[in-house]
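If your schedule permits, I should be very grateful for your opinion on a structural question. Kindly check, if you would, that the fold set down in the tokens agrees with what the sequence suggests. Thank you for your consideration; the sequence and its tokens are set out here:
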Amino acid sequence: DRPFPAELMRKAAEIGLLGITMPKEYGGLGADTISQMIAIEELHRVSPGFAQCIQGHAGLASILLHLAGTDEQKKKWLIPAVKGENFCSFALTEKDAGSDSAAIQTTAVLDGDEWVLNGSKRWIANFNAGDFFVVAAKTDMQAKASRSISMFCVDASAPGLKLSEAYRKLGCRASPCGTLEFENCRIPRDCLIGEQNRGFPMMMQGIDIGRLGIAAAAIGIAQEAYTRSVAYAKQRVQFGKPICEQQVIAFYLAEMAMEIDIARTMLYRASRLRDMGMDYSSEAAAVKVFATEMGVRTAEKAIQIHGGNGYSEEYVVEMLWRDAK
């Protein structure tokens, strides 16, 4: 329940966490996808909310600039973002367009040397970070979705852009989310990323990478829930012995360990396919579904193992369950 953690984000940038797979020429570490997934998992073990701030910044917005941005756009937007000199996020979700990303209604119309944006985006991470957004908008009102969407860099100070108050959320409270309203919002013509009307396939490339990151996040939460549950079950004594020796608790812990291992194996396989330049879309979708559902199951088992203490804010598992959701 705090403002965007800019100072912590700058410290994360200093050790390369805002550009793990970005080429070194852009200030990144140039590491592989598996390295990135390990970092995401470990960050989510400690603070899923703060880790989501990093993901919101170093995820789709930065990826799309890297995939299709011009040299000038990369100098102006991407390199400072990797260095933590400015902060960004990806603006796709709308009232009636979330998983159905092709259904967006926000429009961008060219007027002379400016694009004019109108519409609304919801659940935008890092929305109040104060620098820029990569925004998906329709630029051809007649074409089908795959040939009607374009991507734009929009400065947070652009005229016609309004921000809501931060949402009050169940979990990941350190990661501020809110609404963007575009009312005749004007941006320069050169803010278009890549080709006009070709943003959808580019966006889907980024979403595949994002699915891997969401899976890694869920695995990190589950791993921390499991680790804390093992420690608690060893020291909590009931009926004359530690509860880890009670069969029902032992079975819970075994199921948790098994599912975490399955999810991590799926994640590493999909990541390896990406690093080899092979198609991994199906694997990314599958691990996102399995890992996120597994994360919630594991966090709930952790609360059960902790008993009444699992319901208390004195124990981390209640936060992990909220963040897993």
